[in-house]
Amino acid sequence: MRNLLYDCMHLAIAGEDYPGAIDTFYPRICNVLVQCVCPAREGETPFIIHAGKEYVKARIDENTFQDWPVVFGKLKRLGYDGWITVIENTWPQDQRKKVAIKWASYLNDLWRSL
After folding, report:
1. DSSP state letter for 78
2. Residue 49 phi/psi, 5° resolution?
3. Which residues does residue 5 pair with via DSSP β-bridges, in sequence order?
4. The pTM is what?
5. Is the dihedral of CA 5, 16, 87, 84 positive or negative?
């Protein structure tokens, strides 16, 4: 059996049913990649452009494009106990440690609340 990295950001940007993909991919999911974006507002420099749509980086506690409570709720109900990887290296160097700590705290609190 091959293992799978679940990356809902790329699935969401591609217009895929990223919460539904969990049911399809589980139990092969061995790592959940956490990186957040939201649609760019006028004047913002996009981080990613896909299919003519622009996205900017977002904090996990902002109104992101991905619905993290739904994602982690499904994973928890299915019994997921694998890795969770936070992508912070695209943030400015002086913000990376803060981003990683804040996101880890948010995810820990979210997991416990589900």
Report:
1. H
2. -125, 125
3. 31
4. 0.90
5. negative
Cβ–Cβ under 8 Å, residues 110 and 68 = yes
Tens digit of pLDDT for each residue in 23-54?
999 989 999 999 999 999 999 999 999 999 99
Separation of alpha carbons 61 and 17, rounded Å: 22
Cβ–Cβ < 8 Å for 22, 78? yes
Segment 81-104, tens digit of pLDDT: 999 999 887 888 999 999 889 999
CA distances from 51 to 8, 17, 55, 78, 102 (A): 17, 16, 11, 32, 31
Enter the tokens of residue 59: 């904090």
Q: Which residues contact 70 (CB under 8 A, 6 or more apart)?
A: 19
In which region does residue 71 sit, left (phi positive, over 0), alpha (psi from -120 to 50) or beta (all else)?
alpha
65 close to 39: Cβ distance less than 8 angstroms: yes
